[in-house]
Each structure stands twice: as structure tokens, then as C-alpha cells.
Amino acid sequence: MAEMTVLEAVRTTLAEAMERDDRVLILGEDVEAGGVFRATDGLAGRFPGRVIDTPLAESSIIGVSIGLAHYGMRPVAEIQFADFIHAGFDQLCSEASRWCYRTCGDAWLPMVVRAPWGGGVHGGQHHSQSIEAFYGHIPGIKVVVPSFPADYRSLLRAAIEDPNPVLFLEHKRTYRLIRQEVDGAPAETRIGRSRIARRGEDVTIIAWGLMLHEALAAAEQLAAEGVECTVVDLLSVQPLDRETICEAAKATGKVLIVHEDTLTGGFGAEIAATIAEEAFEYLDAPIRRLCGPDIPSMPYHPAMEHFFMPDRERIAAAARELAAY
Amino acid sequence: MANPETGGGTHPGYPLTREQLLEMYRFMVLARRLDERMMTLQRQGLAAFVIAGAGQEAAQVGAAMALRPGIDHVAPYYRDLAVNLVFGMTAREAMLNALGKRDDPNSHGRQMPAHWGNRSRRIVTQSSVVATQLLHAAGIALGARLRGEELVVFASCGEGSTSRGDFHEALNFASIHRLPVIFFVENNGYAISERTEKEMAVEHVADRARGYGMHGAVVDGMDAVAVYQTVKAAADQTRRGGGPHLIEAKCYRLWPHSSDDDDTRYRPRAELEEWSKKDPILVMRGRLLEDGAATEAQLAELETSVQEEVREAAQWALQQPDPAPEDALGFVFKEAD
Ligand SMILES: Cc1ncc(C[n+]2csc(CCOP(=O)(O)OP(=O)(O)O)c2C)c(N)n1
């Protein structure tokens, strides 16, 4: 068994997909040279002509991918930083998401858009953003948010094989930070399931991306104090695994949702509403959200960045309060 | 001159055989009669919305007939009814589309009328957001290049739509990769009420081709044969790796923007009258007679048969089932095979 970082998981899975299926190709800015995070390092040499540098034009990266997918290819587009995907919002939301719907299944788009997201890297306002709420709002696009290398492996493979547009979000802070022992082949999985990453009967914490790791660290800390947490690794924003989320909420009756995105209209609101609708009778406390404050963006200065982002201490404090409620 | 497509001889003075010329004329008349009938249905309260191509038939038919249905792809825009007809859409199907019927092959009642799309005919599904389809065309062309399939992708839009970023991104991308795309701009002088001068500071859209390192051409969009020749030459060249083309067909929209638009607010009547004299269908008819490609009797017969086809198609389509309300729920995602 080999230990792999998130980044290695992405790179390996891309290479395997290209090896297996010659319709798979990669396009994006700087991808031939390996990309700014080196996720596509070495692929251009191994798969000549199938790793394509694009102009710096996000609408075209997604729009061209739509054409490729419509034609029968399996494009995996890279948006250099999730923050810049909005120039392609129209192509994703007005076109890709509705391709199958508006043709009643006559046409469909097997395409993946990969985007490094999230803060904690001193990236300031345009290199730290969470975008899952914008895109998770749109039926017709799947939005995936893995946290561990093994999930990156299985979910990226599933995304490439999925006949639908998939927005695959990679938390850039975790690229080299998170390692895991990973077996040879990625596990079979399907997009749309969440997982209970840890079980405990006092408080349920729901998180994704970097926050999932912070939540697990907080749960560890709380266990030492005698507070046992269930931690849900969301994995998928759209489709949303309502069942697993509600079961986890029912099991403890106390729910803390943690995300980096700002509070108002953040994806936590959807999760909270789902639990309120489907598991209200089981709740022993108001649902709590721990999120970024409602300011336009994550500030650059480390002190302000730290202030913006929830972390294990704040998660533990919020969970402690809930446990005592 | 022998015509390579048909093997037969062309009609004197034309790049097409007599049969092809009549076919061209037939498609133009069919598109116009369909537009007229759809507008009647709208006035009768049977269709909610119509957006017609009247005045642009020469541009559309001339261009589409220069392509190869079944091989080439088209990414049309909403006025391109005639392009769709050349690519195989029937009068009945066009009527199903106008009425939003369940069996409309374009969107089964999910999109407004004139949002085309039919995969088996290689017509790319299109939305209301203008110019997005130009990028899809570039993607299809790139796919074809990678697969070694020799084809042309034809993508059209109005001149107003050329202001959007997607237009520029598509031209740039296609040109960098020398993709087999024909960007076809039907310049009808207006983007709803805005005249061309408010949309761009250059005289011709085609002037922009140079800025992207691609071929550009302006053609008289009221002359189907001229359009055919221009698009045919471009298609032959781009198919063989000659890079993309930007072709601007100067034409005129003879009707208001849509059934919801009152063009008297912004369009001088005298201008409309001037252009009406250049109605591409009248012009084509005159030329066919003058140049001996057809007799009055033949054209009259053709026109009557089209009229009857359209009448029948509308009657038939009105009887066809509507979608069930809950049909709205299906196909959000494609199921894995
Ligand atoms: C992105 C976008 N903005 C606005 C509209 C509304 N709209 C529909 S058609 C149109 C005018 C388009 O003009 P042009 O491209 O010249 O085509 P024409 O209708 O003249 O054939 C506008 C503004 C739209 N459909 N898409």
C-alpha cells in the first residue's frame, strides 16, 4: 500500500482514465506544462495531443468542452482557480446543465470541470473562494467535494465515466497536506452519496473539503473530553444525499454544519432546511452553522484570513455548546 | 461545368444543377410559408410566440445547401428554420415545435419555439443565450479533428450577438487550432431595435476575421446562389485543414424581431419598403424564370404544393398530443447505460 496526497490521487486518476479510454482528454490553462498545481504533470508527454493548453478564456474552456462532450469525447477541463470559473457560469448553467433536459435525453454531456477551491493559502479574495453553493443550486450539474485521497480517486473516476456534467472541486489547501494509504484501483462508487466518517452519539457535524479535516480533528479533541461526535463527509453537493444527512441528524438530535463559504445562502442553509423539514421531530437543539462571515471575500492578511475561516478550535467550541444545550 | 456533387451539368451561369436550384427555391418558399402560418397561429392564440427568418431565407438555404447533411454539424440560431429544413426537419416537425407539442424533436415542448436541436441530424441543441453555440461548434470541430473525421461545423448568429465574449472566444479558439468551423453571421441590420452602429464600430463583422488570423468574407445575403458559392468554397477549404472562416451575409429582417415586437417604434417604413423589393424569394423567382431554370407553371405548381404541405402540417400538428404536465420532471440527468 502506498501513501498518496490529494494531488497525487488526482494526477494518477487522470492518467488511468486517459490510459483506459482514448476519448478522455484534458484542456485548460497551462495544463501542458503540468498546471500551476502540477495536477497534470507529465500527462502531455504520455498522451500526446490529448492535453491541450487553452487561451485564458474560461467561457471557452467550458463551451469547447460542451462541444467535445456532445461530439462523444470525454473532456476533463481544468479551471485554474475556482474563483475564475464565473466567466464560464453561463456556459455551465445556461448550457451544460440543461443539455440533457432541454433535448429530453436526445443529447447529453459526459464532461468534467475540475476546479481548485477554498482558502487557507493566503490567496486573498480571488484565490480562496468557495463556489459550491452557486453551482450546487443548478439541477443538471453534479457537484462533488471529496476530502480524502481515496475519495478523490473513486469520485474522479466516477465523474469521468458519468454521462453528465460534473463540477469536481478540489480543495487546494489539502492538495499536499492530506495523505492517505491508497490501494491500487479506485473503489467503485457513484456520485451522490455522503459518508459517515466517524460515529458518536452527542453531536453531528457535517462538513466538506478542508473543513471536514478540521471537523475530524475537533471530534478527536472532543472525544478526549467525553463528547462523541458523528462526522458526515458530504462528498456530494448535487445530488444531495438527504438520507445519510437526516439519519446522522436523527442519531444525535444536534447538528453543526461547518463550511468555509459565507453564511447567507451558503450551502449549509440547504442542509439545515433539509434537516428541519425531514428530521425536525428528532432535534434536541437548534441547527447551528459555523461559516465564513458575510463579507465579500476572504481577506489576504493571515490574521484576517484566520478570522474568516472556521478551524478545529471553533468547531470544537460550537460542538461543545451544542452538546451542553 | 460539371457539378462534383451530382455528376450532372450545372445550369448555365450557376454553380448548381437546375434541380438543385429548384430545391433551393423550394426550401426558401417552404420556410417563408411556415413562418407565415406560424404567425397566423400566433394571432389566433394557438401559438404563444414566433420568431421568424423572413428575409433571411437566401442566406440560410444558400449556406445550408453548401454543407453535407448527415456529415457536417450545424449549430444554428433561432432564425435558422431554413437551415433546419435543409438538414432534414420536416414541415410537420417545424409545426410541432411552433406549438410546443410533446413529439417536437427539438425539445418536446421544453423550450420556446425556434430553439433547434436534433442529434441524429447533427443539429446542435441551442438555448436562448446568444452566441454560446459558437463555442460548442469549436468543441465539436476539435473533437472531429482528434477523431480524424473530416467534417465542417457551421455555426450561425446575428450581428448583434457578435458583441458577446463567446463570439470572440470562439473565433480565437477555432483559429488557434485551425478548426473546420464556419462562423456565419446573418447581418440583418438590427438587434431587436438597435441598429448595427450601436453594436459595433466597424462596418463589417467580417473585418474582425483578420484580428483572429482567420479568413473573412462579406456576401450578399439576399442572393442564395452567392451565399452558396461563398460557403461552399469555405467549407471545401476548411474541411481540408484550411482553418476557420468568418462569413458575414448582409441581409435584412423583413418582419419584426418576434411576434411580441412592434418594429414601427424604431424602423423607418421607407427603409422596409426599399428592402422588401429585394425580398430574396421574389428575386430568386425572377432569376429562375429569366435564366430559364424554370417556367411560370413549374414554379406555380411548386408554390401550391408547398402551400398545401404547410397547411396540412399545421392541421396535423394541432391534433398532436401536448406534453403531460409531469413530463416536466424527466431527464434532469442522463442515466448511465
Ligand atoms: C445573452 C443574451 N442577451 C440578450 C438576449 C435577448 N435578445 C434576444 S435576441 C436579441 C437580439 C439579437 O440580435 P442579433 O444577434 O443581431 O440577431 P437577430 O435577432 O437580429 O437575428 C436579444 C438582445 C439574449 N437572447 N441573449
TrEMBL record, chain A:
<feature type="domain" description="Transketolase-like pyrimidine-binding">
    <location>
        <begin position="4"/>
        <end position="177"/>
    </location>
</feature>
<dbReference type="InterPro" id="IPR009014">
    <property type="entry name" value="Transketo_C/PFOR_II"/>
</dbReference>
<dbReference type="InterPro" id="IPR033248">
    <property type="entry name" value="Transketolase_C"/>
</dbReference>
<dbReference type="InterPro" id="IPR029061">
    <property type="entry name" value="THDP-binding"/>
</dbReference>
<protein>
    <recommendedName>
        <fullName>3-methyl-2-oxobutanoate dehydrogenase (2-methylpropanoyl-transferring)</fullName>
        <ecNumber>1.2.4.4</ecNumber>
    </recommendedName>
</protein>
<keyword id="KW-0560">Oxidoreductase</keyword>
<dbReference type="Pfam" id="PF02780">
    <property type="entry name" value="Transketolase_C"/>
</dbReference>
<dbReference type="InterPro" id="IPR005475">
    <property type="entry name" value="Transketolase-like_Pyr-bd"/>
</dbReference>
<dbReference type="Pfam" id="PF02779">
    <property type="entry name" value="Transket_pyr"/>
</dbReference>
TrEMBL record, chain B:
<protein>
    <recommendedName>
        <fullName>2-oxoisovalerate dehydrogenase subunit alpha</fullName>
        <ecNumber>1.2.4.4</ecNumber>
    </recommendedName>
</protein>
<dbReference type="InterPro" id="IPR001017">
    <property type="entry name" value="DH_E1"/>
</dbReference>
<comment type="function">
    <text>The branched-chain alpha-keto dehydrogenase complex catalyzes the overall conversion of alpha-keto acids to acyl-CoA and CO(2). It contains multiple copies of three enzymatic components: branched-chain alpha-keto acid decarboxylase (E1), lipoamide acyltransferase (E2) and lipoamide dehydrogenase (E3).</text>
</comment>
<dbReference type="Pfam" id="PF00676">
    <property type="entry name" value="E1_dh"/>
</dbReference>
<feature type="domain" description="Dehydrogenase E1 component">
    <location>
        <begin position="25"/>
        <end position="325"/>
    </location>
</feature>
<keyword id="KW-0560">Oxidoreductase</keyword>
<comment type="similarity">
    <text>Belongs to the BCKDHA family.</text>
</comment>
<dbReference type="InterPro" id="IPR029061">
    <property type="entry name" value="THDP-binding"/>
</dbReference>
<keyword id="KW-0786">Thiamine pyrophosphate</keyword>
<dbReference type="InterPro" id="IPR050771">
    <property type="entry name" value="Alpha-ketoacid_DH_E1_comp"/>
</dbReference>
